[in-house]
Amino acid sequence: MSWLDSYTHRALLEAALVGAVCGAMGVHVVLRRMGFFTMAMTHATFPGVVLAAVVGIDIYLGGAAMGVLICLCVLAVSRRRDQGATTATGIVLAAGFALGVALLSASDGFSRDLEAFMTGSIVTVTEHDLAVTAGVGALVLLVLAALHKELVHGAFDPEGQRAAGYPVAALDLLLLVLIEAVIVITAPAIGVMLAMALIVGPAATARLWTDRIGITLPLSMAIGTGSCALGLTLSTHWNLAPGGTITLVVAAVFLVSLALSPHNGLLRPPLRRRAASTG
Amino acid sequence: MTATAVVPQPRTEDGPPPAIVFDHATLAYGSATVLHDVHGTVPAGQATALVGPNGAGKSTLIKAALGLVTVASGSVTVRGQRPAAARSRTAYVPQADALDPEFPVTVGQVVLMGRYRAAGWLRRPGKRDRAIAADALDLVGLADRARDRFGTLSGGQRQRVLLARAIAQQADVLLLDEPFNGVDAVSRDALLGALRELLAGGAAVLVSTHDLSVAHILCRQVCLLNGRQYGFGPPERTLTADNLRCCYGAHVLEVDGSTIVAGM
């Protein structure tokens, strides 16, 4: 009997994989301050999934395609001088979600599958889901590692990177596609709606503890994996929804770090705080 | 009020080769024209100052030399090539204020970014790249700050780090956007010293500045701009009271025979 035959083992492995990939992706999202944009992408994935379910194609592919399409719309709208990126993102976020709800109400009978996609159902993860997560996740990590210096350069100084002759727009687009891929593989575990927490949370937590990207990256991956494993264990123990429990653990780890971290902690000794503010 | 346009210096046969040539260049963002009819030459081994009020088009002219702005008419050439094709020979120094001070990157890492293009895609900068970056940081007098986070440095020091990054690129055309803005005296001197060494090494420097004294002490040429060119040539011929009054409007004062631009 294979280790993977147990659904708890499959769920644990899926949670660990998703946590690590989200942790790595999240570092770039946080560095570029794209948290809000990522939330819009998760919401934009929703109508794509509903549409795919109605038409009868693979809901992951449908969600990803719609997500990327809507991101391109946001980019196009935000490039107009009279529209800020935040305004455009907010409108797309609301419109995408509304479209999903409207489509959903017009199509009874698909709601069970769709609900699983929206809030996650990690205990029903199949070996096929695991293979997809592992394959896509490995590819995302590989691209992030290969283009690490270019992605960090562009996050820090996009104008300087353009001046140095880099294809900045292509790199930005690639990053959007990677984020969308991560959202879609995270969906079976904790759902697209909560994916944003798992992408941004561990990375933001890691940033509280260190100022070095070289440390932020593995730390964020470790926090992501740990939070997912802990959340899953707690959810089975107390019979709670796994997606929600994992997200609550991510949020709790962030809040505790906010209170205790050496750089920004609220509880650090008053003497050290004064020394830091004058030095 | 009539503006007396200064004719650009004719290039002599034995003069330094031109690094950047603006040939009646009119520059635009999309369909909006920003700068009309710039005509002049930035020679190698010399510094040229871009002077003009805010919104005059100084940054636009620098972006044109990088090939990031539409040339609506006329032409811009860098080292005899299209600007976009010459980017491996140009280095751009942005304003330090434009960069996120919270970004988790060290001073040494910022300077090393100047070697990324030379190192190439998919490859980490090697030992030689690190040595070049360290030398560049030393040239601006901040070798001892390499391990500090970029955002912990003062504005002037951050500007010096960005100049070190450009030096690490080993380019022979340097384009600097307002590097002396809000910079303390120590950093100002360090920037001027490093730029002088680069000029002695044969680099061409195009630097935008509000500080007319920088134009006088560093630059052999000044390009006076405000939507169009009000002069392109030696400072004593371009930074005249008449030209400045035309370019800046009423904000020009004359005190003890020297011209001062006030209220900008």
TrEMBL record, chain A:
Annotated organism of origin: Streptomyces himalayensis subsp. himalayensis
> What PANTHER family would the database entry show?
ABC-TRANSPORTER METAL-BINDING PROTEIN, IRON TRANSPORT SYSTEM MEMBRANE PROTEIN HI_0360-RELATED
Task: Tell me the classification of the organism that encodes this protein.
Answer: Bacteria, Bacillati, Actinomycetota, Actinomycetes, Kitasatosporales
Q: How does this chain sit within the bilayer? A: Multi-pass membrane protein
- Family membership, please give it: Belongs to the ABC-3 integral membrane protein family.
Transmembrane segments annotated in the record for this chain:
12-31, 51-77, 89-110, 168-201, 213-233, 240-260
- Biological processes, Gene Ontology terms: response to zinc ion; transmembrane transport
What coarse category fits the chief subcellular location reported for this protein? membrane
Check the record and name the SUPFAM superfamilies matching this protein: ABC transporter involved in vitamin B12 uptake, BtuC
Q: What is this protein called?
A: Metal ABC transporter permease
Write out the GO cellular component annotations: ATP-binding cassette (ABC) transporter complex
Domain of life of the organism encoding this protein: Bacteria
UniProtKB/TrEMBL annotation, chain B:
Show the Pfam families listed in the entry.
Answer: ABC_tran
Q: Which UniProt keywords apply?
A: ATP-binding, Nucleotide-binding, Transport
Under InterPro entries, the record lists: AAA+_ATPase, ABC_transporter-like_ATP-bd, ABC_transporter-like_CS, Metal_Ion_Import_ABC, P-loop_NTPase
Listed PROSITE patterns: ABC_TRANSPORTER_1, ABC_TRANSPORTER_2
Q: Where is the ABC transporter domain?
A: 20-251
Q: Name one GO molecular function term.
A: ATP hydrolysis activity
Lineage top rank: taxon: Bacteria
Please give the family membership noted in the entry. Belongs to the ABC transporter superfamily.
Q: What is this protein called?
A: Metal ABC transporter ATP-binding protein
